[in-house]
Amino acid sequence: MKLKGTITEQEYRKELQAWKNRLFNDESMCRFLRIIKESFPGMKTAYILYWIPEQGEDIITVLVDTHSVITIELDRFNHQIDPIIEVYPFEALLKGRSKKHQIKIAVALDLATRDMN
68 partner at 20 to 30 Å CA-CA among 51, 57, 62, 102? Predict the structure, then answer.
């Protein structure tokens, strides 16, 4: 998908950059970041695409570098429970997504590409 600089894209860009900043700098995100680094030791960048807060757990989906996606489900209260981790290629993320989600993913990919260069 080609980006056009629309207001929607600009809003996604700001949101994704804010979530990236939180992922790398907020103490409350250290468990997520540790899991990502363990799964991708050579990681250079990561962007949170989706965050679903459930009653007892948080589920996040993260674009790692420009090639992979990791979904992590962490129990909020019991840190002894192992996280549920799914890793899949970036291309799998695009299947069945609405236009709105495709734009968000394209913006995240653009940001990650810039970070990698």
Answer: 57
